[in-house]
Amino acid sequence: MLTQIINGQILTPQGWLKDGSVLISDGKILEVTNSDLAVIGAKVVDAKGMYIIPGFVAMNVHGGGGHDFRECTEEAFRSAIAAHMKHGATTLFPTLSSSPKESICNAASICEKLMAEKDGPVLGLHVEGPYLNAKMAGNLYDVKNPDKEEYVSILESTNCIKRWDASPELPGAHDFARYLRSKGILAAITHTEAEFGDIKEAYAAGFTHAAQFYNAMPGFHKRREYKYEGTVESVYLMDGMTVEVIADGKHLPSTILRLVYKLKGVERTCLVTDALSYAASDVKPTEGSRIIIEDGVCKLADHSSLAGSIATMDVLVRTMVQKANIPLADAVRMASETPARLMGVSDRTGTLQRGKDADIIIMDRSLTVRAVWSMGHLVPDANTLF
C-alpha cells in the first residue's frame, strides 16, 4: 500500500523541507518530495504541521518494559524492544551487559532469530564487558581481562555482534580491539581509568568510540603534586574518536552536553539511553535491590553511583533541545543519522531518503512522539494522530 505523509516539516539530509511529503511503499521510502499534492491511490496522513523526522537508532540500551536483555529469553527481548519502539526507536542493537560466555551465546542466538524476521527492528547485538576494569565496573558484575580463546570462539560462532565495549587499559585489550576491527565490529572504550597515552594506543589498536562519555571514566585529576589528563580530555584530543552521551538530563548536566556537542560535533556524537529494564515501564526495583530509582534515574542503593537510565530515545532529543539548547535538527541527527553510520547501517536507515527503510517519526511542537513507522508499519500504541 502507498502511504503519503503531508503537511509537516520534514528533516532531510539537506535540512528542513516545508510543504513537502514523504511517500512510503513496501516498507521503503519511495520519495521525499517538495510537493504535498495528493498522490492518486495513496493513503494520506496529515502531519498537521508537526515534525517528520527519521526513526531513532538505539545503540546502547539494556532493557525496557520491565525486561532486561540479560534475561536472554525471547520474551524479554521482544518486550523491551516493543517498549522502546513506542518512543521512536525504530532500529535497535540490544545491549548485553557484562555476562558469561553462555549468556552471550544465548543472547546472540535470540538476536539472530529476530534479525532474520522480515521488517524487524533489530539489526545486531551490542556486548558490554565482561572485559572491564574492576575498579570502574560498579561491582555489579563479574569482570575479567580479555580472553582471546573466549571472544574468538564467540565471534566465530555468530555474525550478529556489531559492537563490543571493553576497558582499553586491560592486558590483551589491544589485541581484542584489533580482532574486532578485523571483523568489522565497533570497538568502544568503557569503564576505564585510561589517560592520554593509553587512549592514543587504544585508538591506534582499533578502539574508535567512547561509550557513555564522561560516565565511568575520569576527567582531569591530581596524583600527589602533579596533574594528569583523564579519559575525557584524552578522547577530546583524539579527533577521529566518536562518543555517545546519556542525554537523559540526569547523567550529565546540560552544560556538559553542550560542550560535547561543541567539541565533537554532530558527526561524532551519538545520543544513547543506557536504559535499564525499568524504562517505559511501571515496574520498580524490588525491596532490597542493589538498584533504586530516585530523581528519575537508576542509582546504586548506597548512592555511590548512577546505575543506568529509565529514558527512551525521545527523552534524549527533548533534553538536548529544551535543556541544552541544541537545534532540533542536530539533536535528531545525533539520535538517528550518526548512530546509524557508526553501527554500519546508514545504507538502510538514519535519514529520510529515497530507497531507505521507512523508519519515520512524527513529533509535535513539544517534541512528544505522535506517530511511529518502522519499516513502513505503524507501531502499535505509539500513534495519537489517528
Taking the sheet with the most strands, its summary is: 8 strands, parallel
Strand order of the largest sheet: 8-11-12-13-14-15-18-19
Low-confidence stretches: none
Strand composition percent: 25-35%
Number of helices: 10
Mean pLDDT: 96
Helical amount: 25-40%
Q: Pairing-aware structural class of the strands and helices?
A: alpha/beta
Q: Give the CA-CA distance, first to last residue.
A: 18 Å
What does the overall shape look like? globular
> In total, how many beta strands?
25
Radius of gyration: 20 Å
Q: Which secondary structure elements does this structure contain, and how are they paired or packed?
A:
Blueprint: E1 2-6, E2 9-12, E3 15-17, E4 21-25, E5 28-33, E6 43-46, E7 51-54, E8 56-61, E9 63-64, E10 67-68, H1 74-85, E11 89-96, H2 101-116, E12 125-128, H3 148-157, E13 161-166, H4 173-182, E14 186-189, H5 196-205, E15 207-210, E16 221-223, E17 226-228, H6 231-237, E18 242-246, H7 254-264, E19 269-272, E20 291-294, E21 297-300, E22 306-308, H8 313-322, H9 328-335, H10 337-342, E23 360-363, E24 369-374, E25 377-378
Structural description of this entry:
By secondary structure, the chain is α/β, with parallel strands linked by helices. The chain contains ten helices and 25 strands. The protein has helices spanning 74-85, 101-116, 148-157, 173-182, 196-205, 231-237, 254-264, 313-322, 328-335, 337-342, and strands spanning 2-6, 9-12, 15-17, 21-25, 28-33, 43-46, 51-54, 56-61, 63-64, 67-68, 89-96, 125-128, 161-166, 186-189, 207-210, 221-223, 226-228, 242-246, 269-272, 291-294, 297-300, 306-308, 360-363, 369-374, 377-378. An eight-stranded parallel beta sheet has the order 8-11-12-13-14-15-18-19. A six-stranded mixed beta sheet has the order 3-2-7-23-24-25, covered by helices on one side. The two termini are 18 Å apart. The mean pLDDT is 96.
